[in-house]
Amino acid sequence: MKSQDAPRGEAAAAAVSTATQRPPLPPFTQETAVQKVRLAEDAWNSRDPEKVALAYTIDSRWRNRSEFVNGRQEIIAFLRRKWAKELDYRLIKELWAFEGNRIAVRFAYEFHDDSGNWFRSYGNENWEFDENGLMRVRLASINDLPIKEAERKYHWQLGRRPDGHPTLGDLGF
After folding, report:
1. Residue ranges per domain, the chain?
2. Separation CA 113–CA 132 (nearest Å)
3. 160, 147, 142: which is closest to 118 by C-alpha?
4. Whole-number pLDDT of residue 168
5. pLDDT tens-place string over residues 85-134
6. Residues with Cβ within 8 Å of residue 42, at least 6 apart in sequence
7. Which long-range contacts (CB under 8 A, 24 or more apart) does 90-93 make?
């Protein structure tokens, strides 16, 4: 019986491992790093805190501006607060650099507050991933620029940015 149990045990372990992996996995190539960045952008544009949090390790550590966030539960709470204040949020991320299990991105997003004031936020993030492709460290530096509604550049329907939409470089950001 033990010899029959071993394969089942290995299969179960493999199934659990696969369920917790978030491909593409490190070490990253140019292609897989670009793919990882787009997957992150798509998740954030969903504005679904629970969905976004699944891309991070259980004990993920963040620095977002001057706020320090630790673990998935704090990530979910942080994102709920963020998207309750940053209305009509639309984001573009772009690969800046990568090596091994680390990726650096630059990004810009637009949103308005509950008084109708529009902003464009520019930033950089440094990411570090575990062997399963889950982000364990996210360090973000962000600057906000008030803009007029007429200066907005992101007009797609809420959700995933269309494939043909201009990139940050195309927009001069």
Report:
1. 24-171
2. 37
3. 147
4. 97
5. 999 999 999 999 999 999 999 999 999 999 999 999 999 999 999 999 99
6. 160, 161
7. 90/45, 90/154, 90/156, 90/158, 90/161, 91/41, 91/44, 91/45, 91/161, 92/41, 92/154, 92/161, 92/165, 92/167, 92/168, 92/171, 92/173, 93/37, 93/38, 93/40, 93/41, 93/44, 93/125
Q: How many other C-beta atoms lie within 10 A of the C-beta of residue 151?
A: 11
Of the options 3.90.330.10, 3.10.450.50, 3.40.50.11890, 2.40.50.1070, the CATH number for the domain spanning 24-171:
3.10.450.50
